[in-house]
Amino acid sequence: MNKLSGKFVAGGFSLALLLLCGVGITSFISFQRLRQEKQWVIHTHRVIEALDHLHVGLSNAENARSSYIFTSKVAYKKVYEQEKRNVAQQFQSIKNLTRDNFRQQDKLKQIEPKLEQKFNFLQKSIEIFEQQGLAKAVDIAHSNQFIAIDTQLKNLTQAMESEEKTLLQQRIANADESFNQSIFVVALGYGLSFFLIVGVYLLLQEQIRINQVLSAEAILLEQQAAKAKLVNILETVTDAFVALDRNWCYTYVNQRAGQIFNRHPEDLIGKNIWEEFPEAVEQNLYQIYHQALAEQQIIEMEEFYLPWGLWFENRIYPTQEGLSIFFQDITRRKSAELALENSEKRYRSLVIATSQAVWLADAQGFPKEYSSWMTLTGQTQKEIQELGWLNAVHPEDREFSQFLWNQAKEWKSPYKLEHRVRVADGSYRFFAVRGVPILDGDNQIQEWIGTHTDITDRKLAEEALQQAKAELEIKVQERTAELQKLNEELRNSNQELEQFAYIASHDLQEPLRAVTGYSQLLVEEYRDKLDESAQEYIDYIIDGARRMQQLIQDLLAYSRVGTRGRAFTPTDCNAVMREALSNLQVAIAESQAIITYDLLPNLLADKTQLVQLFQNLIGNAIKFRRKDVPPEIQISAVMVEGNRDVGEEDLTQHCVWLFSVQDNSIGIKSQYLERIFEIFRRLHTRREFPGTGIGLAICKKIVERHNGRIWAESQLGVGTTFYFTLDESIA
């Protein structure tokens, strides 16, 4: 009997060890499989995210192109080019991610020429806008061919996204299946190991009973050895395990359970479970534990433990001593299941909310479920079976609808079109149709699921839009004719202004030169014969003639800013500054002015006018200097975002150069800061400061010709800073 028992014990332990090894190997294989499934799920998410970025890039490119042709701002054209490159990058990323999916690669081969065609249309609309104007560019953007390409692109990308979402669901399901299989295998292995150990233990008890000659110490040692082996097994399992006696006190708690409880296992031994965790009394598991102990039945349950906010899977085994409980945290799995269930509910709600009719058909197209179709069209079941669903389609649309249906069945592709359907009240309405084939593992159609969505309102709106577009084109043509007439009148007016400028520069100045010259001759020849009053009157005549001549010259300079300006060329602002300072060297020397400037940028500009701009601003700073204080003037330039003024929000997003001319002059009162740029606006008398009051007006006109703005900030007795902006590049 001893030999036989020894063989049974050895065999039982060997089998248990083999089972544990098998469970370990199986767990490792399952873990690797779960990791692989997780990588596939992440890969699918990346593909879906890349498809979303492709959609966003296409939308941004089209919006940038539209903004450019409507606003003519170069910044939007740059955005368009950037988004075009982003779309290409996203497309290449999708291509790389789906290189192992031949179906997706086939769709990408279809998408690539469509993308190229779409960007060709967008580029063509930009070129037509730049050459022929807004109306022609809008015609290209709204052409049927462009809309068809856009629709095909959306359908293809949506088909790819749908396939990826289907793959995602399958891979999540595979991961869950692998996880459940792992749990089952581990539980089965440990359960069998447990029962083998119990059998070995019972066999040892029988051996002890048969061999009563053994001492009590030997029996105790055998029991302790069996208990130690059981403890080792329970400590190696991945599940949490606790044992309770009939008084609900812990007799054993493994390390995994201690981690979940956030307690040391030895601190719980001998303590009552309901006293240690009183909140559990309100949970369903309180009743289940009592039921398992009272009825001596094994119970498996999933319970949400509200105090911890976690889901647990419990397996409760009653014993003579009390309860043995295996449990594990399944919160992640339950969260995924709930998320999937909510996603399915949202999908069903979306179908109900957006579709007028949902239908199911077999592989050949014969209806399987068409209750909503009968409600929509008023067809009876007999009519559908005898005449078919095409009988409710408008006669003019039937042939095309049948053709596309046959093509979709042959190609195993989605069925998409728009046609008119007779509804229950007898009227025809427009519907958007979409049917999707459900394929089996052999790529054969099992059934079709589709929707009919009422788009009558959209069709009516499109017709109204077409009519409004035609009326708008007529108005644009009329307005264009008016603008051409106004342009002709403006050209004539400019010619007259040029003629006036010529007269002012020659004919008006000639009498003034005569008055000035003869007055000076009169003073030189008859100075001794004139009394003091006569000499004073002649001085007034000469001064007035000179001021009149200076006024005419300033008016000519002001008028020629826009009419005689030179073409914009690459201009070094540092060279401009040196030329302006050279022109002012006499005034600088007399006033002992200190002028410093930072490194200035290169711009596209009219060099002559920039010299005049800096010369006027620096000359003003010298002219309006404080008494006994040498002028100190600092010129600088920084690049800023947008062409903005102080306290204003910039609506454009291009870079401009912000110039500043800061001095320590007498300053300007704040209420006059806006008026100083008006022509002939003077804040001081001619005796205080000479001049005609046109210098700052000329500055403003020069800056505005360069698409910039000019303003000033000042503090009386401290100084004034003039700011103006110039574009980084001027078209």
Protein described:
With 731 residues, the chain is of the alpha+beta class. The protein is built from 21 helices and 17 strands. Strand 3 and strand 4 (310-318) form a beta hairpin. The N and C termini lie far apart (107 Å).
Q: Structural class per helix/strand content?
A: alpha+beta
Counted by DSSP, the helix tally is: 21
Parts with pLDDT < 50 across at least 5 consecutive residues: 643-652, 684-689
Query: Termini separation (Å)?
Result: 107 Å
Oligomer, anyone? single chain
The major sheet is characterized as: 5 strands, antiparallel
* Arrangement of strands in the largest sheet: 2-1-5-4-3
What is the gyration radius calculated from CA atoms?
46 Å
Mean pLDDT equals 78
Compact summary:
The chain has 731 residues and is an alpha+beta fold. The protein contains 21 helices and 17 strands. Strand 4 and strand 5 (322-329) form a beta hairpin.
Which helices and strands occur, and which strands form pairs?
Elements (H helix, E strand, L loop, with lengths): L1 H70 L2 H24 L4 H31 L1 H8 L2 H67 L5 H21 L3 E6 L4 E4 L1 H7 L3 H4 L4 H4 L7 H12 L3 E7 L4 E9 L3 E8 L1 H24 L2 E6 L4 E3 L1 H7 L3 H7 L7 H17 L3 E8 L5 E12 L5 E10 L1 H51 L2 H18 L5 H32 L5 E4 H11 L1 H7 L2 E4 L4 E4 L1 H17 L8 E10 L13 E8 L32 H11 L4 E6 L3 E9 L4
Helix pairs in contact: 1-2, 1-3, 1-5, 2-3, 3-4, 3-5, 5-6, 15-17, 16-17, 17-21, 18-20, 20-21
